[in-house]
Structure formats: structure tokens, C-alpha cells
Amino acid sequence: MEDEPENSHEEGAPAWMTSFADMVVLFLCFFVLLLSFAHTDNQTFRSALGSVRQALGVRTDLPAQARPIPSPTEQAAESDAHAAADQRVVAQLEQFLSARGLRAQLEVAPSERGIVLRTRDQILFNSGDARLRADGLPVLAAVAELAQRFHGQLAVEGHTDDLPIQNELFPSNWELSGARSAVVLRYLLGVHIASERVHVAGYADRRPIASNATEEGRARNRRVEFVFETDRDQSADTAFDL
Q: Which of 7-21, 59-73, 170-184 is most confident?
């Protein structure tokens, strides 16, 4: 019997079959995973997705569910609800001021930023001056009381008419309006209103609410505004404890 050649034995499967088999197994696992997602609820899907992300080294925390965009009808209803809440608060604040004899000194109005209390003419300061008038202190006391009953930020904003001013203390209306806001701020801090809840600004004659062509209009523009700011999702009548 003749000896068989050394290389006559059958060879094994080609080397590429190993990689191919691995790829088939991976695809099979992937399709099984997809099939399981097709029969699971949203919460289970999120949990599984988080596990996959963690395994891949990606952050697993999922963003909070986005607030659905309201329809035009829902937006109109929400706007009407906010407007009604603002009007209720305006009426309550007017009663608050009337009870303290200050209804004639302060005007109350709603705005896109919140509820605004604005002084009438020179109740807090004399013309061209930034020293508080004694008869204006009850106004600031009422504002401070409201600030203590308010859950939010209070903006103190000084405004002037367009008549120019120039003296040693105030080179222009910018300095005058800013100084008046700072004086009011110091008063509020002195009655223990938290400093992180109040911010101030001076706008000179840049934001008139009436025409500067008449004395009546200029008198309206010479004012300090107290803006009780509310967030977009916050109703004004929940921001105050009245």
C-alpha cells in the first residue's frame, strides 16, 4: 500500500467564513432587538435605550419630555386666562393702595413683563433732584410691603422727560434717572428686601409713555416704575399674596 501524500488531507473552512458568521450573528441579534421593541411600551424602550447608551459610553440621561406646542385655540385661551389674572391683580392692587390713601400717587397697569406700579410726576423727587421727598415715603413703604408679598423679581426703573439737565451732580438725564433708581433701591434694602430680588435701571427720556410736547405729557414721563416681574408660565394672581 502506497503512503498517502502529506498534503492529501481535506482543508478546513476558508478564513473569511469566521468573520461572515460573526456578522450574521450580530444581524440576528439586531433584528431580535428590533422585534422586542415592536412589542414593548415606551418606558421599557427608554430603559433599554439607556442601557445601550451606557454600554456604548454615551450619557444615559434622557432629556425631559418636551412641552407640546399648544394649538392656536389653546394659545388664545391661555392668553385670555393670563389677561384675566392680570386684571384681577390690578383691581386688588388698586384696593390695596386706596386703603392706604395712595391711589392718586400710583398708577397700576399690566404689561408683558408683569404688573407695573408707576409714580405720578414728582411724588418721590423734586425736579432735577435725587433726594427722596418726605411725602413720598408712604409710597415706598407700600411698595416694600407688596415686594414682601410677591414671589419674583422687582425691577426699579427711573425715567425723565426730554428737557436737558446739566449740573455738578447730574451731567444728563441718564445720571439723574439712574441715581433716583439707586436711591429707591437703598430704601428697599434698608427695609430688608433681599438684594437678589431687586434690580435697577435708569432710562432717562428713552422710554416715554406720553408726548413730551406738552407739560401734561412730560409730567407722565417723569416717573419711577416698579415692575413686579412674572414668568411666562406664572399667573400674576399666584405671584402675589394679597
A: 170-184
